[in-house]
Amino acid sequence: MNRGSGDWQGGGGGGVNLPALRGHNEALLLELLRGAGPAGLGRSELAARTGLTPQAVSKITARLGAEGLVGEAGRAPSTGGKPRTLLRLVPQARHAVGVHVDRDEIRAVRVDLAGVVVAESGGPLDFGAGPEVVVEAVVREVARVSDPAGPPPLGIGVAAPGPLDHRTGVMGRVTGFPGWEGFPLREALEGRLGVPVPVPVVLDKDTNAGVAAPRDPASPASTSVYLHVGTGLGAGLRLGGEVYRGVRSGAGEFGHQVLRLDGPLCRCGGRGCAEVLCLEAVARGDLAEAARILGEGAANLVALLDVDQVLLGGRVVGAAPEVFVEGVRAVLGARGRALGAEPVVGLAVRGVAEGAAELALRPFFGRPT
User: Fold this and answer.
1) Burial class (CB in 10 A: 0-12, 13-18, 19+), 203
2) How far apart are alpha carbons 76 and 290 in whole angstroms?
3) E strand or H helix at 345, and its extent?
């Protein structure tokens, strides 16, 4: 549809009224409606927030409604005139798939446009068995959670152990699994999953997916760190509201900071790393000590980056959440003066697979992966 120059009214919302950017404006409105939740927003509010004219908003939302993406959420209370119709996103209209490839297990989910899990599957996995085995496992789990009667997923997000290059989709030298270095995992998955319809595949580190997972609306911190304790120890960083990966996709190697000089040998080749100290404490059943070690590493990260929220996740944390939350909180509290301000500590409300699905959904809402 060709919209004339009269659609633009200026303002600071971000709407762009050029025919070539029709998809941009649609994504902008969908993102706002997603954030509004079931309560929805009125057309005038959408126009005010985007800088688009009410006429442009009406045309775009009518088109989105015809596609089943937008529906009515009811009427706003009258302020003297005709009650305004509120619009909402229809979450079940489309889906994305997220897969968490761990060193010893795999989990896949299908989520709707609101990020809610509608199907999940998983089981054991031997990451060390090599790329062919893992690719087959991902293909199998994606098939299990997909809806054969519905449209293909908007995208498939895959979270795997790092290091890896998010831009190229190529695996790095994963600690303990050198045979993975240089394997083009994203390309291999696109070749298997994009039949008969091409489906975009996003590959990222498990910790980046963890920090990308949908947030608790009550805790909308834009600067946060996600600490994952499972078969390894890593971090995902959200700086300025976006996942921070670093120039070479190498940010977040949290587990290999040295906390004890000349300490026990870590599988990375270093000594006294946070990962080996924490996982050794877990192995001997001293979860309080594991939490204290995690807290000391977290405090270093908070002091360096001035984050205002620390989220904890992973199967080890999930087995004893109170111990880890209180242990990390105690360390950050003790070091609060040096940190300047004590960040909020809590549990991640969504898992890594959900975060991988969120990465796959982001382009649909006009956000970078």
Assistant:
1) buried
2) 51
3) strand 344-347
Q: Which phi and psi (to 5°) does residue 74 adopt?
A: 115, -160
DSSP symbols for 130-169 = -HHHHHHHHHHHHHHHS-TTSPPPS-EEEEE-S-EETTTT
Q: To the nearest 10°, the Cα dihedral for 165, 133, 121, 282?
A: -70
Tens of pLDDT, residue by residue over 191-207, are 999 877 788 999 999 99
Alpha-carbon dihedral sign for residues 190, 194, 198, 204: negative
Q: How far apart are CA 229 and CA 350, in angstroms?
A: 14
Q: Read off the amino acid at residue 259.
A: L
91: three-class secondary structure by DSSP: helix
Indicate the range of 75-79, 115-119, 134-138, 152-156 predicted with least confidence.
75-79
* Contacts of 363 by beta carbon, 8 Å cutoff, 6+ apart: 154, 155, 200, 369
Between 27 and 20, the more confident residue is 27
Residue of higher predicted confidence among 221 and 127: 127
> Do 146 and 353 contact (CB within 8 A), yes or no?
no
State how far the Cα of 235 lies from the Cα of 352, in Å rounded to an integer.
Answer: 12
Please tell me the distance from the alpha carbon of residue 96 to that of residue 58, in angstroms, as a whole number: 27
pLDDT band at 218 (very low <50, low <70, confident <90, very high): low
Q: What whole-number distance in Å separates Cα of residue 76 and Cα of residue 176?
A: 58
For residues 252 and 243, is the Cβ–Cβ distance under 8 A? no
SS3 109: strand
How far is the C-alpha of 62 from the C-alpha of 170, rounded, in Å? Answer: 41
Q: What is the pLDDT of residues 296-350, one digit of tens each?
A: 999 999 988 888 899 999 999 999 999 999 999 999 998 877 766 778 899 988 8
